[in-house]
Write a structure and sequence with these properties.
mainly alpha; about 5% strand; about 220 residues; three-stranded antiparallel sheet; 7 helices
Length: about 220
């Protein structure tokens, strides 16, 4: 099938943004393909984890498998994992329940339970959800050492709070109990204190005023 050509006009649905179409051999197209493939794998993993009733270990294990092969995630990628994969992990199951329900029949207990869970998690994400910080190099390196069995190990890691209402804002929820993370946090605080002290010294420095010489 020949690749679709980008139209020079806006789409007819309410004057929305024009959809970008990339050449199939372009670098951007390759990135989109890899992203979609990775999303599909994570969706399957999320479904498997959800079948275990969302225990702590299975939840942390999901985010463990969301780690990139190398390096760390960007904040935007972390939102993608939460919003488009984790929160959407029950979509297919919920759609199947709705399709199986006859017209005019009440919702099944399972459908109601899944809808309630999705609403609860969506609200949590809107107001602020705590997740393992997959954007922090030291934290990611420590997370890679986890055996995917011991939940207590996760308490050593750094958690951040992100929300759908303010996707560009992130705050540290827990600095982590691991000595490396504690040392980094202490160094950060010391640097911030020194910078603040220098700023105060500059603000309090006396102004040198040159008095006019007496007229002769």
């Amino acid at each position: 099938m020949s690749p679709a050509k980008a139209s020079g006009s806006k789409t007819s649905s309410g004057g929305g943004k024009k959809e970008k179409v990339f050449h199939p051999n372009s670098r951007k197209a390759g990135q989109l393909v890899r992203t979609q493939h990775r999303k599909s794998k994570l969706v399957e993993l999320a479904k498997e984890r959800s079948q275990k009733q969302g225990t702590q270990v299975s939840i942390y294990s999901f985010f463990y498998h969301a780690l990139p092969p190398e390096g760390v995630l960007s904040l935007e990628e972390l939102h993608f994992v939460v919003r488009d994969v984790w929160l959407a992990r029950h979509n297919q199951e919920l759609e199947a329940e709705r399709a199986a329900r006859r017209k005019g029949r009440p919702k099944s207990a399972k459908e109601l339970k899944l809808e309630e869970l999705q609403l609860r998690e969506a609200e949590l994400y809107r107001t602020g959800m705590e997740v393992i910080d997959l954007t922090h190099p030291t934290n990611v390196a420590l997370f890679r050492q986890w055996d995917q069995k011991e939940a207590a190990y996760i308490q050593q890691l750094r958690f951040v709070r992100i929300s759908s209402e303010a996707p560009e804002t992130v705050s540290v929820a827990r600095i982590g109990q691991h000595p490396l993370l504690k040392r980094e946090e202490e160094q950060r605080r010391q640097a911030a204190a020194e910078e603040q002290a220098q700023a105060m010294d500059t603000d309090e420095a006396p102004l040198l005023i040159e008095h006019p010489s007496p007229s002769s």
